[in-house]
Design a protein that fits this description.
six-stranded mixed β-sheet, D-Maltodextrin-Binding Protein, domain 2, 18 helices, 2 domains, alpha/beta, three-stranded antiparallel β-sheet
């Protein structure tokens, strides 16, 4: 039986870490407060806002049979990549909105971006896409391809949604290109069985899931000395899972990846150089250019690696049949004891395909999935992550989700919306490869920052 400690702290308390409202402007007051009531009226799919052709409370004409067809393309965010699960969610939406037909296309992170870019070039972009701010805001939104969703960001929505999430869903001018549904904090993980056998558990706090930089060093030394050939890998075969390597390096000595305004890359700080030099010199930690994050997950799950830097609760669930040991999720090590984890935020954006009816129908879909009091819980649970606002403990009785919930308050700045993000990600793993093959750390980091900031300047 796996070793687990059920936290006494309820998830509803854990999630209250940043509920203070943000004073950004941009929400439209004309959106009616009774949207949820209108959606419950099966014939009133288009009466959400003032200016709608349908009068308040008016049922859709039965005789006309007019339908609006929209497409949703979704990345594999938990079970939002599972057709059976999504079919159930769509059925609930259709029951409440019978005049809107939703077809779904399932993407993966290997070819999904290429599929969408090809569709954009061919003038056939999907109406809706489910992903995160780095794509919806910093990429397609920055290129002027997305619909401004400010009317969905009512005062009530801003009051409810966590500050860090709200700020990530808009550009620097306050235009919202994403309406969020769920979030998580990415962690690392260790093979508890191996660490226990090496007497390395003494260097970490199991209950809190935290450790110091010194404790991390001592633990890795102990595990390596016990005969574990590969303790951990700084994977750099590509950008997959790079949130793990960024979080590891930024946390070790308190470095940052960008400035607070998300306009400049700052990874060349003394703290980050020191962290990279530490990792480069540690026995048991290898810079591995042959693997990406997904490969590291597989190597950890089969016991080859004793720790993983690319981890979250979904990884444990997805690899449950492979894992033959007790997984202990951990925050990244810090000198300060105050880890800043990279977060994941997922929600919906709308491509501006020039069809007002489709845009309105897509907004109706978003509002139903993310705001309907009954539906939103099921929508979030389908992601296997946590809500972006306080919905109480939706995972009550779920031991695994309760365990991982303790990492949500450690979520740091969501900096993935800085300009030139795609180019910076490529430059990052190239930098790690250079360090792994002997390039001077400071030289490699300075080259990374020069490349990333040039891309940021070109994007602004």
């Amino acid at each position: 039986m796996k070793y687990r400690k059920i936290l006494a702290l309820a998830l509803s308390c854990v999630m209250a870490f940043s509920v203070a409202a943000c004073g950004n402007s941009g929400g439209k007051e004309e959106q009616k407060e009774d949207t949820k009531t209108e959606q419950d009226n099966a014939g009133d799919a288009n009466a959400e806002e003032e200016g709608s052709d349908a009068a308040d409370g008016e049922e859709a004409p039965e005789a006309s049979g007019e339908m609006t067809d929209i497409t949703l393309w979704t990345y594999p965010i938990g079970n939002w990549g599972d057709s059976a699960t999504v079919d159930g969610l769509i059925s609930s939406f259709t029951a409440a909105n019978p005049n809107i037909n939703v077809s779904v296309e399932y993407l993966d992170y290997t070819n999904g971006d290429d599929q969408i870019n090809t569709a954009i070039e061919g003038g056939k972009a999907p109406d809706l896409v489910m992903e995160g701010p780095e794509r919806l805001v910093a990429n397609w939104g920055a290129k002027g391809l997305m619909v401004d969703l400010s009317d969905l960001w009512t005062d009530e929505a801003k009051e409810a949604i966590y500050d860090s999430v709200e700020s990530a869903c808009q550009n620097n001018e306050g235009v919202f290109y994403e309406y969020p549904l769920c979030m998580t904090a990415h962690t690392m993980a260790i093979n508890r069985d191996v660490f226990e056998a090496a007497d390395a558990l003494q260097y970490l706090d199991e209950e809190k899931g935290t450790w110091t930089t010194e404790g991390f060093q001592k633990a890795v030394e102990a595990v390596a000395a016990s005969g574990q050939a590969q303790v951990g890998a700084v994977f750099c075969g590509g950008q997959g899972g790079d949130q793990g390597t960024r979080a590891l390096i930024n946390n070790l000595y308190g470095g940052t990846f960008t400035n607070p305004e998300h306009t400049e890359y700052t990874a060349n700080s003394e703290e980050n150089v020191k962290a990279l030099e530490l990792l480069k010199g540690m026995e048991g930690i290898n810079f591995d250019a042959s693997i990406q994050g997904g490969d590291e997950v597989n190597l950890f799950s089969n016991g080859t690696l004793a720790m993983a830097f690319c981890w979250n609760v979904s990884q444990e669930k997805n690899n449950a049949e492979t894992i033959g040991f007790d997984v202990l999720p951990m925050a990244f090590p810090t000198e300060s004891g105050d880890p800043k984890l990279c977060g994941g935020i997922w929600g919906f954006g709308i491509f501006d395909n020039g069809d007002a009816a489709k845009i309105e129908a897509a907004k109706t879909f978003i509002d139903f999935m993310a705001n309907d009091e009954t539906q939103v819980v099921e929508s979030v649970k389908a992601s296997s992550y946590w809500p972006v606002k306080d919905l109480g403990n939706i995972y009550e009785g779920d031991e695994l989700m309760t365990e991982y919930s303790k990492f949500i308050p450690f979520m740091g700045d969501y900096y993935q919306v800085v300009g030139g993000w795609a180019e910076a990600r490529t430059a990052w793993w190239n930098m790690l490869q250079q360090i792994g093959t002997g390039t001077d750390v400071k030289t490699a980091v300075e080259e990374f920052v020069t490349t990333a900031n040039a891309a940021a300047a070109a994007a602004n």
